[in-house]
Amino acid sequence: MLKTNIETALNNQIRIEAESSQIYLSMACWAEAQGLEGVAQFMFNQSDEERQHMLKLVKYVNERGSHAKITELKAPKTEFGTFKEMFEELYQHELFVSNSINELVHITLGEKDYATHNFLQWYVAEQIEEEAQAKTILDKINLIGEDRGGLYLFDRDIQQLAVTSSVALDAKP
Ligand code: FEO
Among 35, 81, 97, 106, which residue's beta carbon has the most beta carbons within 10 A? Predict the structure, then answer.
């Protein structure tokens, strides 16, 4: 059985991952409405990944004899300005998630809960990847600037990235 404060902190992370999934789903819909098919596909995949992150936590909490709580979620925005602003938001959001995971790791150490600490290492590694990916995409966007042809190629490239990450997701246990 998990200590109450660990259970509460993990349930808080469950909500954050679920809200992340909703935010990226909303970004996918916005991108699709703008005709950015590749970006939309990428965001649909990101949304699925966040749901997997949430489920992994849910299963862990329940396996430890505690109770994962599914709660109301904050509604995401539905408008994102430009696609560059949208990716900046994605990057900032991932920094926020990393921070929250770090806090969680800190709590487990304080409580000497080494099993949960060990479980969370997967999330620590995942956040490094997610931050790096968001940063790479932002760098590409900055290279394109206002160039329409560049945007077309970017949309095609990111679709490729979406396909690759969805294959990786399917391969995950
Ligand atoms: Fe589950 Fe993108 O953080």
Answer: 97
How does pLDDT run across 47-76, given as a tens digit for each residue? 999 999 999 999 999 999 999 999 999 999
Q: Point out the ligand 1 atom lying closest to the alpha carbon of residue 54.
A: 1
In the chain, what are the domain boundaries? 4-171
Do residues 93 and 140 touch, judged by C-beta distance below 8 A?
no
Are 7 and 66 in contact by the 8 Å Cβ rule? The answer is yes
83-110 and 114-144 helices cross at what angle (nearest 10)? 160
Dist. CA 128–CA 124, nearest whole Å: 7
Residue 34, both tokens? 């703008």
pTM above 0.90, yes or no: yes
Does domain 4-171 fall under CATH 1.20.1260.10? My reply is yes
